[in-house]
Amino acid sequence: MIWNKTKECMSREDMRQLQSERLRKLVERVYHSTPFYRQKMQEMDITPDDIKSIDDIVKLPFTTKQDLRDNYPYGLFAVPMSQIVRLHASSGTTGSPTVVGYTRRDLSVWSESTARCLSAYGGTSDDIFSVAYGYGLFTGGLGLHYGVEYLGATVIPMSSGNTAKQIQLMHDFGPTALACTPSYALYLAEAMAKTGIPREEFKLRIGIFGAEPWTENMRKEIEAKMGVDAYNIYGLSEVMGPGVSHECECKDGSHIIEDHFYPEIISPDTFEQLPYGEQGELVFTTLTKEGLPLLRYRTKDLCTITDEPCKCGRTNVRMSRIVGRSDDMLIIRGVNVFPSQIESVILELEEFEPHYLLIVDRINNLDTLEVHVEVRDGYYSDEISKMLELKKKLGHRLQSVLGISGDIKLVEPYSIKRSEGKAQRVIDKRTLN
Ligand code: ADP
Ligand code: ZN
């Protein structure tokens, strides 16, 4: 169902009009309330009067995670603390955490945005959602939580961890939807299978997965193992949290809630705005946010955007899956490697489980890449020749996709540590020194 037809199915022209109006107001607001932005704009010799339409956005300065850190904790907040009703902090996948603040109105926009997502996945007030994202400073848990309530459905605030209990309550309470990271979903699916409880005794039908990159193959894997329809949800705490974009029944890109979050794709090298269709870094301007409004926030996430009409009837632009983060790109022996490329290769081959760990090091001034990967039950063997064969197969695929070879370590099923939140799949020992 389309939750908010007016905003989700607006003509492109009306959307641009709305975005232009909102951008003008936003710039006016931050110019007068946030010294950081006023100073940046003054340095660029622009005033709010220079911003007349959404196209003028290219005149505005970028904001980065570093700016948030430099103004830690509240320097970029645009309202007095008396108007901030909630704080969250980013999980700090890279570096120290950043604090974000929400006004009452921000929270209501967030809930409505998340409700749009849940509705697009086919969720209704009849559904029961088990939210297995972490509750706390991380935006995942509470973000989804209030979206479910806004939708009028039932929420089970499970939070992450305690897998045995998750499964017991999923069995007893009968949630029809599960929200968690895709890596935890896989872990849960395995653990559910191990309990021996027949799958029909679970009522799950919708899976809502995000907060970390995942692939089409991983979707197939989760859907097969868990018996759900798996959908992508994307977001980041600086912009709001989960619910910045979402898939629809077409599962062909994620619609961006662009009446609130204006997306651009820029070249990470020249910072020039790129046309739709080209891959680059995703940048968001929070058109309506009050607590921590951001102008052209550089997400470091790499993807493409399309404004081609979607069969679902929504007109909101769609973003592709995140192919990687410009800052999690590994440079191994001079070659750019994204962990997601390695993941796709592993998932294409039926002999392997989607559990892997990449260990990058520098030995005698030479970069090394170890790929630890679990061999699927039934393919794991004591026969050395069989294992060597498998190793060769994966090695060749990796070499042809990445252009470099890695040292492959085949490990037994279930031997790689499972994660309850965002999976850690890369250990770069070069940066640890
Ligand atoms: P961080 O992980 O940077 O500390 P957050 O917890 O807010 O901060 O996570 C936001 C980041 O998580 C995004 O910028 C993106 O890299 C990643 N992410 C979130 N959802 C998805 C998704 N559906 N697919 C891929 N990556 C995602
Ligand atoms: Zn659609």
Descriptive report:
The chain folds into 2 domains: 1-325, 3-Layer(aba) Sandwich (Rossmann fold), CATH 3.40.50; 330-431, GMP Synthetase, Chain A, domain 3. 32% of the residues lie in helices and 25% in strands. The protein is built from 12 helices and 22 strands. The strands form 5 sheets. It has a 9-stranded mixed sheet with strand order 4-3-5-6-7-8-9-15-14. A 5-stranded antiparallel sheet has the order 11-10-12-13-16. Strand 8 (241-246) and strand 9 (254-256) form a beta hairpin. Helix 2 (12-33) crosses helix 3 (35-43), helix 5 crosses helix 6 (139-151) and helix 8 runs parallel beside helix 9. It is globular, with a radius of gyration of 22 Å. The protein starts with a helix and ends with a helix. The relative contact order is 0.12. Bound molecules: adenosine-5'-diphosphate and zinc ion (ZN). Residues 90-93, 210-213, 232-237, 299, 301, 322, 325 line the site of adenosine-5'-diphosphate. Zinc ion binds next to loops.
Assign the CATH architecture of the largest domain.
3-Layer(aba) Sandwich
| CATH fold node name of the largest domain | Rossmann fold
Helix content: 25-40%
What is the CATH first-level class name of the largest domain? Alpha Beta
Structural class: alpha/beta
Largest sheet: 9 strands, mixed
The tally of beta strands, per DSSP, is: 22
Ligands (ions, cofactors included): adenosine-5'-diphosphate, zinc ion
Features:
Rossmann fold, binds zinc ion, binds adenosine-5'-diphosphate, alpha/beta, five-stranded antiparallel β-sheet, GMP Synthetase, Chain A, domain 3, 12 helices, globular, 32% helix, 433 residues, nine-stranded mixed β-sheet
